[in-house]
Design brief:
The structure is a single chain. The protein is of the alpha+beta class and 148 residues long. Helix content is 47%, strand content 15%. It is built from 5 helices and 5 strands. The two termini are 20 Å apart. The model has no long low-confidence stretch (mean pLDDT 85).
Amino acid sequence: MYNLHDRPIADTKKTLGKGTCYFEFCIGKFTGKYWMDDSLYLYEDSIELIEALLIDLIPDFDFYSETVLDKSAWKNFISELKKILQKIKAAKNYTELDEAISLDKHVKESYAEKFEEMKNYIHDMLQEIVNWSQTNEGKSPYFSILGI
């Protein structure tokens, strides 16, 4: 278990720490270049909290490789995230949160006494993805998620 407040929910290239434990959300098809200035970076352990959700929403999602989504698939992904954000906001317990995002068993056990903190962290992380997407909408017909 890690402290959810040890680091920010999301980073830009300017605020990244050292290491390769980031998932990079980038504009366009992956071209072999990492660490783009306009990408959004999420920590590996943060992505682990929503891995099941990503797999549900993006069947080809690969934790260890590149996942490229066309505009239609990306819009569907963001649309679903917006619906899920409402469910997370309304969740009153882990059962309701789990129904919204399919929490991993170890997450529920590790944070059993910190429901509100976990709920808010996951909500804010997904909101960061939505906000970044809206900021970059129309820049490319593709988006990529680069695994670790």
